[in-house]
Design a protein that fits this description.
Layout (H helix, E strand, L loop, with lengths): L1 H20 L2 E10 L7 H21 L8 E5 L11 E5 L6 E17 L2 E14 L8 E5 L11 E2 L3 E7 L4 E8 L4 E6 L9 E3 L5 E3 L11 E2 L6 E11 L9 E2 L11 E4 H14 L4 E10 L1
Parallel strand pairs: 7-17
Antiparallel strand pairs: 1-5, 2-3, 4-5, 6-8, 8-12, 8-13, 9-10, 9-11, 9-14, 10-16, 14-17, 15-16
Length: 292
């Protein structure tokens, strides 16, 4: 019995080492020229870093030409909802690699010219070639449970709801990261004993709403300055996993029971470890703007 256990342990260890060795270091420098006059400097920086990471992945692993699609990105502001600019870019699914861990993010130069931001950045990190097909999940953080698409921005005091669906069953965690580098665990709820939210295949979910789930935790966002930028992390895997080791928080959300929290750096370390172990884990991020 001991020999069987030892053999199993050695095999599992070898598989893990093989997966870890498949991860390589990548880097890229990218200059982002904004085409949206309403874009904040924080949004411009985030876009620059996102595209720099994609450039690093493309240079290292290449692009699936057959999967390249033109994605129309419309930029609208609440004050001028009719104005928009069209940008065509390669979708993330066309890139043959995935970003695992950020080692360095550096803003080399940032200028404001003719009403637009020009941001030059450098990124370094760890990545690997796509090893498995990721689940095609759908999600949107909205202000009203009837909404399908996310709003341009949220207002101080808005309720928030998450619409989510997946073609396969699995586990889900959701974090919101503020400008002070605090990561708040929105899902699973603070009172849930499980380490993640179980997801059924082909089911439409509306989280943070007691209208859909009497045991749900409802959240309200606030903004201490005139405007703030938060980052939403939606983490899903068809395999079972547990959220990061967080603690009870006490700020940034107006509610009786606050979401649990940890530092952003700790969340990134947890993500790196879990993505290394689970090639099927997908991490989707989006910037959430909150205004007074």
């Amino acid at each position: 019995m001991k020999r069987i256990f030892l053999f199993t342990f050695v095999v599992l260890a070898a598989i893990y080492v093989f997966a870890a060795n498949d991860i390589v270091r990548v880097s890229a420098t990218y200059e982002y020229i904004s085409d949206n006059s309403h874009e904040s400097p924080e949004q411009a920086e985030q876009t620059a870093f996102t595209r720099a990471k994609q450039k690093a992945l493309e240079e290292k692993f290449g692009v699936d030409v057959s999967a390249v699609t033109n994605t129309l990105i419309s930029n609208r502001s609440e004050s001028t909802p009719q104005s928009q600019s069209n940008v065509f870019s390669i979708g993330e699914t066309a890139v043959r690699g995935e970003w695992i861990e950020t080692i360095k993010e550096q803003v080399i130069e940032k200028t404001f010219s003719n009403g637009f931001w020009i941001v030059k950045v450098h990124v370094e990190g760890k990545a690997r070639r796509n090893a498995a097909e990721k689940a095609d999940i759908r999600f949107a953080l909205v202000r009203d449970i009837q909404d399908v698409e996310p709003p341009v921005s949220f207002r101080d005091g808005n309720d928030i709801f998450l619409r989510f669906s997946s073609p396969v069953a699995g586990s889900l965690c959701v974090y919101l990261v503020d400008e002070e580098q605090n990561a708040f665990c929105l899902l699973p709820y603070p009172h849930q004993p499980s380490g993640s939210q179980p997801i059924e295949a082909n089911k439409e979910y509306v989280f943070f709403s007691q209208q859909y789930d009497r045991s749900a935790q409802e959240y309200t966002v606030n903004c201490e300055r005139s405007s703030e930028q938060n980052a939403l992390y939606v983490i899903f895997s068809p395999n079972s996993f547990a959220k990061a080791n967080d603690k009870q928080s006490g700020k940034n959300f107006r509610d009786e029971q606050m979401p649990r929290e940890l530092k952003y750096e700790e969340l990134l370390k947890w993500l790196s470890r879990n993505q290394t172990r689970d090639p099927q884990m997908s991490v989707h991020t989006s910037i959430i703007s909150i205004r007074k």
